Amino acid sequence: VQLQASGGGLVQTGGSLRLSCAAPGRFYSSHVVGWFRQAPGKEREFVARFRWSRSTTSADYGDFVKGRFAISRDSGMHTAYLQMNDLKPEDSAVYYCATGSSWSRRPTDFRSWGQGTQVTVSS
């Protein structure tokens, strides 16, 4: 699965962005969709993860998110989203989407990755 991340850009502190992650075909309920970020000189960091089945959905966020971000998908399961609100300069990073099969926060547990999209938050 080759993912395509988009939606990054330059925004002021307190602003919002919605990142998109497109699957070449579709996401399946066996997938866990994750968002990660990496700032210069830092390790790749867990942002959010999402999975769904016919009856339930589960979402989980990094501690730093504090209710500011929301992960979701479209009804056709072609695209996953990360809505980011109340952005701060420390949120500046390259954001990546990824898919895996285990409910994990570790980047190494995700097999397929998108190319990343740059988010820059100015103060």
Description:
It is a single chain. With 123 residues, the protein is mainly β. The chain has no helices and eleven strands. It is 0% helix and 50% strand.
Rg (C-alpha, Å): 13 Å
In total, how many beta strands? 11
- Could you tell me how far the N terminus lies from the C terminus, measured between alpha carbons in angstroms? 36 Å
- Oligomer classification: single chain
Helix-residue proportion = under 10%
Number of helices: 0
Give the arrangement of secondary structure elements.
Blueprint lengths: L3 E3 L2 E4 L4 E6 L9 E7 L6 E8 L4 E5 L7 E5 L5 E6 L8 E8 L9 E4 L3 E6 L1
Parallel strand pairs: 2-11
Antiparallel strand pairs: 1-3, 3-8, 4-5, 4-9, 5-6, 7-8, 9-10, 9-11
Summarize the structure.
The chain is mostly beta strands and 123 residues long. It contains no helices and eleven strands.
Can you give keywords for this protein?
globular; mainly beta; 4-stranded antiparallel sheet; 123 residues
